[in-house]
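Handout, tutorial session.
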Amino acid sequence: MIAHWPSRLPGALRSDFGRSFIDTRVAKKAETGPPGYRKRYSLMAMRYQIAIAVTQDQLQVFDNFYINTLNNGSLPFTMDQPELIGAFLLDEDGDPVLDDDDQPILLDIEALFLFGDEPPQTVPHGIGFKINFDLVKMP
């Protein structure tokens, strides 16, 4: 069974959020002219740089999740896509789609993630902690 990101942990800090595509191209060797590329594989993963601000209790939840549930970060897990948290479903004109009560519909799209190459780093942050880590969203 695939684990899910613990609900007791907060979402990503917007100020430290980043994402980038993982390059799926292979450079073609050419003696002259502009560089050329071909597709190495068709499915593309996405790399995320994430930081979360946590309390002492939440730090223990994170550590337990990473160490015990994910076997030191080696197993995949699901979570809401960080860039879509709090975003609304939009129509073709860019206006929020409303439900039966005229409330905007929030996007809630889960994806499969793995922790990146480096283990999470925890630093003091105010009266709590900030945990910095990389994630890879699987295609």
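The second record follows below. Compare its token runs with those of the first.
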Amino acid sequence: MFSFRTLPCSLETARSALDSAVRADPALTDLAAVGAGVSTDGMRVAGVPVGVDAWVKNFVAKKAQSVITDVAKLDVVSHGLIHTQLLNFCRISRMASLGRNTPTPLLSEFMAQVDATIVEAVCRHGTGGGHADWTPYLRKFANMKIQVPHFRGGFWITPNECSAISAFYSATCALVVWLGSHGGTGPAQHFPDAWAPGLDLTSPDSWHAPLLQALSTSHALLFQDYGCVEWTSESDRVPAPLAFSTALPFVRPSVGSRNSPPPLSTDAYPTSYALSEYS
């Protein structure tokens, strides 16, 4: 993010200049209507917070609270399937967008709050409040079934606290690959120099930009806590630009990994499930 601290003027001067520009140009009146101003801490870009950590965390906290408030409003929906779909495709997706574009350490606690609220809403709506009498073991089992994928017999209401890690990692890796594969001879084609000046995108140890440091942190977290592994041979790697037709090799995770693959045979699953109104 561009910092106004580098400008040769005070914050008051910058704000005054913006106000004058808005008043002088009728085409900028919309800026006044949306409360546009000058900030040294952060700004929202396409709905995504960009700025210092404290500002970003405050933004995410407010967004999480807004989602939690909206979850309660859905209790008036009587149809179980519609209720669950509204939670899954409207409420969870709002936080998922933040997870894709915001370093995970800045929003994990807020993601967890929203995840817990949504799971509680599903249980409350599906049991008419009877879940309050469940044992801790039964409640933990229900939470798991709500959040695991369909192929494991769950409702696939993905917890953003976990999925945000891989979402941010994948999106940021795609940006790095794109920047690294779009160099050219013309000034307008020097994407790496314009977007990541002074950085060697092929050398993660040299990265000092906050976004790229967060990418390295996510990489280490996926290895340490989720059992992910590197592709081990040059022939396994996807060339840049990405070839979507390339079939990625199957790499079995380490023993005990959280992301161990499902059985290839359906014989491992029971022939039927006790289906609820959400199925």
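Points raised in discussion: The radius of gyration is 23 Å.
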